[in-house]
Specification:
3 domains, Immunoglobulin-like, five-stranded antiparallel β-sheet, alpha/beta, single chain, 537 residues, TIM Barrel
Length: 537
């Protein structure tokens, strides 16, 4: 009897420990994907803030691809970098002697206060925060064991990602990073060129420098080839394979040494194919083993990976999507610059809020980039916009956070196109606007876009309440056909309509064909106005 009791105890110990043992076993990407569910923290967040910020912010002019364009006398179609070459020569010196490696050393980020930034971003309504781990310039903003050109070894001499990670945890913000590094070899090719005319004609740029050239210089011991890559003629298949393996080592360290809730790859599909897939697998396995579930997000412009969040650059979905997605944009340009002619803002408080409402109504999140100055602080004009965005989100938070789409995302759609059809706009321009709307990437509406009509709305739901965002409100009546009792959406009979932020009575009438609602003159602000509608759901 005693023997059988011991056997039973051993069996129970083995049985109970089996899940723990199996949990320790790393799963393949396919196995992880089979049970993955998008975490609630992400699908309910609806608004995140990103700082697309690194060493390329150090030069005050030259566009967002400064590191590339400073080596190009003629940027051809890449007009955003047209000032880089002239600015670099004037400010730093000729790129045959003083190149981007030297710009890295100039960047100090001397006023960076990650606590202040993260706490502020939380106060304006962001539910998660994303920092740039590296850009196409192949410089790591973290303490990289496998890449000497990083922010701990030179420049700020700080582990920027670690500091942002710690501040995010301190203020209970989900934290992520973006990686843009897998195209650096082709992106850097201009660094191996030379001037085509003038006193430096034919003199190679510093991409050709070697570790020996650094003797007695500030960068002694660093190899420029580790930053720029080898000269194109020396890039053998074995060398390129080594670059990919190094990328995997660096990014494996990134997802294991730092506690990330969110990983974002810039580009299409997994970086370097199976190498990117292996890093993603390691990332998800680490979260699973640490937390018992994969409460993390992988985002990018993936074409056939249902386990990832679809990323749309400077644009949004044209319909309600069944899966989570995000639209990314920036107020002006990706890296902060002061190029003459490029100082105009693409977005204001108004357009950010309109964009947020539109994306949320289609099951998407808005990720807004804040263009930090080179010292790590927020530009005054951008802070004023963020302050107002934050005030609006705080007022209307119930319609934003944890919201879900309704049966349709809006009513009186394409109102600006209808206005233009009756105006003097050319047919070609009108067709271009229609085409832009139907696309995703780069289809965003900005300050230069025609205004919405006063009756165009977006819908979200939360619990048993329907929220209606009147995008460009004006005093007077508006008609909403989708809320007619016999419309295709089959809404319930409305029992009450309230304007968020006001106690005044809202006049409305619902019949079989439409809802007629009177938008009052006195509203909480001059921005998108949100109404709480009861009885529809």
């Amino acid at each position: 009897m005693e023997f059988h009791k011991h056997i039973l105890i051993l069996f129970l110990i083995g049985f109970l420990s089996f899940p723990a043992l199996s949990q320790d076993k790393d799963l393949s990407w396919e196995e992880l994907s089979a049970t993955y569910e998008f975490p609630a923290w992400y699908t309910e967040a609806r608004f995140g803030i990103w700082v697309h910020w690194g060493a390329q912010t150090e030069p005050m002019q030259g566009g967002g691809w400064y590191a590339r364009h400073m080596y190009m006398e003629d940027v051809k179609h890449e007009k955003w970098g047209r000032n880089a070459y002239a600015f670099h020569n004037k400010t730093y010196g000729h790129p045959s002697e003083i190149g981007y490696k030297d710009v890295l050393n100039e960047w100090k980020a001397d006023k960076l206060d990650t606590d202040a930034l993260v706490s502020y971003f939380k106060s304006v309504g962001a539910k998660y925060f994303v920092a740039l781990a590296n850009h196409h310039d192949h410089f790591d903003n973290f303490n990289s064991t496998y890449h000497p050109w990083n922010s701990v070894n030179l420049g700020p001499k700080r582990d920027i990602i670690r500091e942002f990670e710690q501040s995010s945890k301190k203020y209970n913000m989900r934290f992520g990073v973006s990686s843009h590094d897998d195209r650096f070899l082709g992106w850097w090719e201009p660094a191996f060129g030379a001037d085509t005319s003038g006193p430096y004609k034919g003199v190679p740029y510093d991409g050709h420098m070697t570790i020996e050239d650094g003797k007695s210089k500030w960068w002694e011991g660093l190899d420029p080839a580790d930053l720029y890559g080898l000269p194109p003629a020396q890039r053998t298949p074995e060398y390129i394979e080594g670059v990919k393996k190094n990328w995997k080592l660096r990014h494996t360290e990134l997802v294991t040494k730092y506690d990330l809730d969110y990983l974002w790859f810039d580009g299409y599909n997994f970086p370097y194919g199976d190498y990117g897939k292996a890093v993603s697998t390691t990332y998800f396995n680490k979260k699973r083993e640490s937390n018992g579930k994969i409460d993390a997000v992988l985002a990018g412009k993936f074409s056939s990976e249902p386990t990832t969040v679809k990323d749309i650059e400077r644009g949004g979905a044209s319909e309600i999507l069944a899966f989570p997605w995000q639209g990314i944009t920036t107020l002006r340009t990706w890296f902060y610059k002061e190029d003459e002619g490029d100082l105009d803002y693409r977005h204001s408080t108004r357009t950010v809020i309109e964009t947020l409402a539109d994306y949320n109504s289609k099951n998407g999140n808005l990720v807004l980039n804040v263009e930090l100055l080179r010292d790590g602080t927020i530009p005054t004009t951008q802070k004023l916009i963020l302050d107002d965005v934050g005030a609006w989100i705080r007022l209307n938070s119930e319609a934003v956070y944890a919201s879900k789409p309704w049966k349709v995302y809006g009513d009186n759609l394409d109102s600006y196109l209808k206005v233009l059809e009756n105006s003097a706009i050319g047919e070609a321009d009108l067709e271009a606007l229609k085409k832009q709307k139907s696309e995703e990437h780069f289809n965003e509406r900005t300050l230069s876009s025609p205004a919405y009509g006063k009756d165009e709305v977006r819908y979200t739901t939360n619990g048993d309440v329907l929220y209606m965002f009147v995008l460009n409100p004006a005093e007077g009546q508006i008609e909403l056909p989708t809320l007619g009792l016999k419309s295709q959406q089959k809404p319930g009979k409305i029992t009450a309509i309230e304007m968020i932020g006001s106690n005044q009575k809202i006049e409305f009438k619902q019949d079989n064909t439409k809802l007629v609602l009177t938008v009052p003159a006195n509203r909480p602000n001059n921005l998108t106005t949100v109404f709480r509608i009861k009885g529809v759901l």
